[in-house]
């Protein structure tokens, strides 16, 4: 399978070579449910992050297929895969090294706005959206990530964001507008409603848009969207709180927003609220999100406030939930046709 890709395939390394690259796994960068990441260096001097995967079973065909597909991506806002290792149950991915780590360590810090600043946060938000648009619409193989969150956004030396960790990604043909899948995948707090329950509509690229919106609101709030310990119960779920306080000055002041950067903060908030609409049909595509960033704040409308319980209990809204299945598919198909007619992006590295 690998030989068929020729020079397009990422380089395959022996496990012994991977151990040399990581100096026998001396410097750990992080770990998660899918593996442990160590810092390493290739023979040509390039620094890399090597992710050793846990609990690997089977003959590896699915792993190789995923590696080859992601290995063919090339975009400034998607982390580069330099190589991989597959020896029985031993599997590892070799990525470019990101010296500034992941986004979460900045936005969940004590003074996130002082470290990054609103202008840089805004640029990071746009960069992530561009990376997602590439994965959704400009790849040879469409990729739905399914785990967009601050921990999976890496920052290079210039704080350029790069989407990483494709362990949960779903690959599909570019003509497919909806995905067939079993089970739930993603991280609690970022999972789109339709991924958790098909009652809300079909799973599609808009499932990533929901996760992106939740992340965008965390960037604005400088906190996790769901907080267990708060002064008031109304502050527990940040998206509801910021929606209710958006028109009030104290709402954005609580997020360390000054008059100089108010437009940036308000625009990020509005776009985030549109992205987390419960029903996929009301969410923008990621292409539309980029268009919204280019508009002035006055040109953006406030989205409706949707409630999970109200949508399911109200007969009228229940019909909307059911119709969302067919309408989401239709809109996604139209979006595919639109993007395919557009000239190639200049962002592709």
TrEMBL record:
PROSITE patterns noted in UniProt: PROTEIN_KINASE_ATP (PS00107), PROTEIN_KINASE_DOM (PS50011), PROTEIN_KINASE_ST (PS00108)
One Pfam family from the record: Pkinase
Membrane topology type: Single-pass type I membrane protein
InterPro entries the record matches: Kinase-like_dom_sf, LRK10/LRL21-25-like, Prot_kinase_dom, Protein_kinase_ATP_BS, Ser/Thr_kinase_AS
Binding site for ATP: 51
Domain Protein kinase: 23-297
GO molecular function: ATP binding; protein serine/threonine kinase activity
Keyword line: ATP-binding, Glycoprotein, Kinase, Membrane, Nucleotide-binding, Serine/threonine-protein kinase, Signal, Transferase, Transmembrane, Transmembrane helix
Subcellular location, record wording: Membrane
Signal peptide: none
GO CC terms in record: membrane
Family label: Belongs to the protein kinase superfamily.
Annotated protein name in UniProt: Protein kinase domain-containing protein
Provenance organism: Aegilops tauschii subsp. strangulata
């Amino acid at each position: 399978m690998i030989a068929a890709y020729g020079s397009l395939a990422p380089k395959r390394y022996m496990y012994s070579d991977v151990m040399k690259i990581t100096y026998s796994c001396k410097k750990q960068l992080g770990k998660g449910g899918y593996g442990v990441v160590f810092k390493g260096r290739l023979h040509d001097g390039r620094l890399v992050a090597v992710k050793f995967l846990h609990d690997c079973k089977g003959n590896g065909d699915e792993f190789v297929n995923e590696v080859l597909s992601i290995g063919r991506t090339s975009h400034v806002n998607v982390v580069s895969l330099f190589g991989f290792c597959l020896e029985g149950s031993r599997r590892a991915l070799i990525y470019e090294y990101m010296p500034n780590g992941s986004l979460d360590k900045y936005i969940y810090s004590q003074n996130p706005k002082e470290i990054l600043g609103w202008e840089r946060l805004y640029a990071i938000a746009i960069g992530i959206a561009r990376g997602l648009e590439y994965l959704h619409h400009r790849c040879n193989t469409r990729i739905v990530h399914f785990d967009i969150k601050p921990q999976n956004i890496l920052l290079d030396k210039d704080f350029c964001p790069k989407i990483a960790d494709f362990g949960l990604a779903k690959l599909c043909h570019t003509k497919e507008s909806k995905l067939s899948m079993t089970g739930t995948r993603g991280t609690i707090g970022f999972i789109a409603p339709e991924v958790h329950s098909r009652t809300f509509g079909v799973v599609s690229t808009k499932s990533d848009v929901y996760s992106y919106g939740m992340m965008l609101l965390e960037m604005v709030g400088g906190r996790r969207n769901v907080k267990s310990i708060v002064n008031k119960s109304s502050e527990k779920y940040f998206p509801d709180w910021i929606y209710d306080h958006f028109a009030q000055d104290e709402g954005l002041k609580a997020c360390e927003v000054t008059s100089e950067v108010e437009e940036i903060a308000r625009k990020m908030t509005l776009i985030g609220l549109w992205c987390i609409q419960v029903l996929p049909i009301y969410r923008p595509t990621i292409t539309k999100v980029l268009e919204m960033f280019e508009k002035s704040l006055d040109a953006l409308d406030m989205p409706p406030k949707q409630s999970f319980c109200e949508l399911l209990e109200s007969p009228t809204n229940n019909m909307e939930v059911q119709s969302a299945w067919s309408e989401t598919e239709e809109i996604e198909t139209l979006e595919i046709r639109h993007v395919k007619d557009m000239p190639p992006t200049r962002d592709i590295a």
